Amino acid sequence: MIGWLLPEERRGWRIRLEEDRTEGIRLLRASIPLRPGGDKAIQARQIARAALRLRGRGCRRAVAPPGFGQWDAVQAGGLAQVDLGPMCQSLAAPLALRCLALRGIPADQAVVALRGRRVNRWLFETAGALCPLVRNLVLAADDGGEDLTRWLEGEYGLPGLRDPAQAHLCLHFSVPVQPPGKEDLVLCGPAPVLGPVALRCRRAEHPGIDPLALLGLLWEEGKVKREEIEIISNSSRESLDRKGQTTYNREL
Prior knowledge:
By secondary structure, the chain is α/β, with parallel strands linked by helices. It has helices at about 40-55, 70-75, 85-90, 90-100, 120-130, 145-155, 210-220, 235-245; strands spanning about 1-10, 15-20, 25-35, 60-65, 80, 110-120, 135-145, 170, 185, 195-200, 230-235. The two termini are about 30 Å apart.
């Protein structure tokens, strides 16, 4: 079961727990009273209390509304955020192509860098998907990177590049050791950096829950298909937030 932290602007101290379900995902909602303009330290303690209660009921991870900024308090209460890395990495190739298109860089003229501590399943599949489409790839992975580079050179005839600085776009499959470039995509952790694009799925829209976190849960449970996930520009995402509608990209 997944904990759901839902701050409410109301007086009092009582944290209300209630089970809920959305798209087959079991949720335990903790309605947390927070006074508008109240002391931040008191609010953090109240959120930590809610996280502790959720953990006591068997939750190990939690979701919260969009823009929720008290994750340190949640972690202090023993709950973790949803890891969105595997989902984002599974979409790395179409994400890269969409970002290049938004920047006006034709894929067949682009150099893309893939970075990570090791060659995992998603980095391998991304390299295979992008090789026939881009001008070149740069592989920077400590474990397995050289072997994959040689295989791609033999399979696709691309001259293997070793310097990520030559790339138009860099995709990180693990937490960067150095601060990433402003155009980089960081496809790991609970707060991936997707640059000019966003992910959206209509089935992951639920009031009071960050849609990307809910989408990550649906993806890991096998409850959403890849073709249901739309890659949209951030400008479209902002328009959607304002107007409740947008035009979607379905290039996956």
